[in-house]
Design brief:
This protein has one helix at 3-91. The chain is mostly helical. The longest helix is centred in the middle third of the chain and has 89 residues, at 3-91.
Length: 96
């Protein structure tokens, strides 16, 4: 083997090793990017769920508020109705 061939072989081996390292580094970076993307998606999903829960809670509160208002309105109508009945009762003359 001539020294030139030996140098050539060494150079080729080094290039091959560098290429492998480069590929491993790229794979590692891709894996990290993939993990980051998954974490981001999980975070977005979590935020979405929290937003939905918040909206649901606000919806319940709004329903309760509307229910109370409706109940109060009905009570007022009943009171007005009762007062109206009281007022109307004397104006009607009983028919015998």
């Amino acid at each position: 083997m001539s020294p030139r061939s030996n140098q050539e072989t060494t150079r080729l081996v080094e290039e091959e090793e560098e290429e492998e390292e480069k590929e491993e580094e790229e794979e590692k970076e891709e894996e990290e990017e993939k993990e980051d993307e998954e974490e981001k998606e999980e975070e977005e999903e979590k935020e979405k769920e929290e937003e939905e829960e918040k909206e649901e809670e606000e919806g319940k509160e709004k329903e309760e508020e509307e229910g109370k208002e409706k109940e109060e309105e009905e009570e007022k109508e009943e009171e007005v109705g009762e007062e109206g009945d009281k007022e109307e009762a004397p104006t009607h003359s009983p028919v015998h």
